[in-house]
Predict the 3D structure of the following.
Amino acid sequence: MLVKAAANAPFHPASPITSVLFDVHSTLVDQGGSADWLDLALIKAPTDLPPANREALEHFLDRIWENGRVVDPQSSRDLSPQAHAEVFFTLVAQGPSVPPALAQGLYDVMLDTWHAYDDAVPTLQALKKLGIKIGLLSNVGVSIHHVLAREGLTQFADGIVLSYEIGVVKPNREMFEASLNSIDSTAAETLMVGDSGHDDVGGTALGMRTLVLPRTRGPLHGLAVVVGLVAASQVNAANLSSGVALEH
């Protein structure tokens, strides 16, 4: 589907980047470590976990949403809170044995370990200084507005589009069209930044430039490259408009 859509994408003239769309999870925000997630859940639902059981559960939780692509390939979990919870508990049931109370605890504190990468706010600040419009979009079945506000990201956003609020998920082009509309921008002047080579490239069907930064470990996600790309596009456009030939 994506290949066919990209093959039919329009050809736009080279334009300076004046807008950037960011995926949220694993792009601007790290989901945190499974050990911390489990610790918070155990506070809500104290459970005796032998060391070997805990290690197995931590390993499973670290990639639980990757497993979601198997049981829910159409990302229905990102269309409603009910579907999101249903898929989560289905996934938990497929892993190491977890008592119901602990499973509920894990779900209740799931977003408490989500924190912005250390380079997220500085990157958004730098883009704003360049006069760039910023949109945030995410495949998510529950509200994350409080996470975005808590992590200092909302203040930089000209538009926020969440899949469960509009009934569409990435990589459907409608998700990207809605995000462009939310910041009053066009595909030709926008850069999409995400972590998924599947979900986040749907904008290419609109002719949108796309940068994929796969999920990383640690406090930094390499987001400074976005500022470099934006600045370079503006310099190149200025040089071309003034008739200056760019050296290769």
Residues 2-29+114-241 form a domain with the Rossmann fold fold (CATH 3.40.50.1000).
